[in-house]
From TrEMBL:
NCBIfam families for the chain: tim (TIGR00419)
Keyword Nucleotide-binding applies: no
Protein name as annotated: Triosephosphate isomerase
Family, as annotated: Belongs to the triosephosphate isomerase family.
Self-association and partners: Homodimer.
Catalyzed reactions per annotation: D-glyceraldehyde 3-phosphate = dihydroxyacetone phosphate
Pfam families tied to this protein: TIM
Record has Iron-sulfur as a keyword: no
Swiss-Prot/TrEMBL keywords: Cytoplasm, Gluconeogenesis, Glycolysis, Isomerase, Signal
Role this protein plays: Involved in the gluconeogenesis. Catalyzes stereospecifically the conversion of dihydroxyacetone phosphate (DHAP) to D-glyceraldehyde-3-phosphate (G3P).
Protein location: Cytoplasm
Organism: Cupriavidus pampae
Amino acid sequence: MRQKLVIGNWKLHGSLAANAALLDGIKAAPAPARARLAVCAPFPYLAQCQAVLSGTTIGWGAQDVSAETRGAFTGEVAAPMLAEFGCAYVLVGHSERRSYHGETDAIVAAKTLRALESGLTPVVCVGETLAQREAGETEAVVGRQLAAVLDALSIEQLGRIVLAYEPVWAIGTGKTATSEQAQAVHAYLRKQVVAHGEGFADVAARLQILYGGSVKPDNAAELFSMSDIDGGLIGGASLKAEDFLAIGNA
Ligand code: 13P
């Protein structure tokens, strides 16, 4: 049985005061019985997350990591730095990074490796655009994005990642994939991991695959009831403690 995981992706939102209210609200509520919660904050707020969430069951992490470990890379933040701030997770290859920052599959694979080397759990995001879905290319696109990561990792490393399926057309649009649409892609991703090679069936069975894209309190339970959906990656609804907790309890 895979543990459910619900991660909030704050994106470019927050302030010390707003985060304090949000984190206190999440922390004050009873921990969801069947899901682990985590928040992925902008870099400057990781110390705040660490201060507020240490000793709780709530994890925290970053939204990106450098593909480099050190050196002359102005503006980059390396995985060992995230580890120093107690991060458990880091998002890798979010569609907003892929589309606005030109992150290729190769960069996403390198970032995944850097995260693993520092003991972080990379949450590797894949997803198709609306045009790609309408052209019948969903499986080809997410399959290619996944393959780049599978090819770079050992089976042991693969056992330490989380995958997230986020259809680009569902992000921030209020258009959720139906639970059947999401389940179909999740099942396909798991099948691709099994097919990657001998001995991959076990790691595929244990792999947590989260769904992201307009998850809200009123659609979370239905999505999370699907057999291959192991939780959610939540954008907008993770900025309100009440909504985020309701999703965690779904
Ligand atoms: P929304 O929940 O705002 O659609 O964002 C999803 C997302 O991109 C999470 O990473």
